[in-house]
Amino acid sequence: MFDREKFYRQVVELSADEANRSDRPATFHFQGRDWDLLSGVFPTLYRPSTYVSLEFLGLDEADSVGWSSMLEIGSGAGVVAVTAALAGCPRVLATDINPNAVENTARNASRHGVSSVLETAHSDLFDRVDSKQKFDLIFWNSNFIWAPPEHQITQAYEHSYFDPGYQAHRRFLRESPGWTTPSGRVLLLLSTNKADTATLFDLATDLNRELTVVKRKTFQDGSDATHSEYLLVEVSERQPR
Question: Which residues of the chain have pLDDT under 50?
Fold first, then answer.
């Protein structure tokens, strides 16, 4: 059985180590491109979730996309959002609760020449997204590690790892379907090794939401020998049966 309390304690130490590594670079090479990495932003190069996101979304080798608008929640350094724009998505909005990540995404959009189609916003989920905007794709590589409700976020990088009491996920499940176009999709990245998926699926049921696993794959997790299973989960309104 997944021990979320034990895993939380482990990640408290691990996340601080990754955020403060002495060899953390200011730029890094990833998927054939160079990227800026600002202080306090999730270190894409140490963990596989950004690559997993690209692969699951079909952006790892794509030169075109099947959607005309995208909202990324929690853009971090901006790799996914910028790659979507480079693949031809004509309207991308990248948001993050961490202001350093918002600046990082904007810098990488400028670095790769997509600032004209990629907008950034400092936002806690949908708080600062124009209510008139709708999107073909909403994607969140979420902070799926459960933390106790009393956990206090004191460092910007913690937003990339922890969701105290899964309150952010509760909000995302409740609000996200309201921001899609009629044929739009809401996709959420999780890991069965790291997230309390049972609680998240129960939350979805309580909120009248359906969670459907559309992709799953096991990846080596970082430079150690461990492996993690990742899921791409579609969020939709539960239909009467």
Answer: none
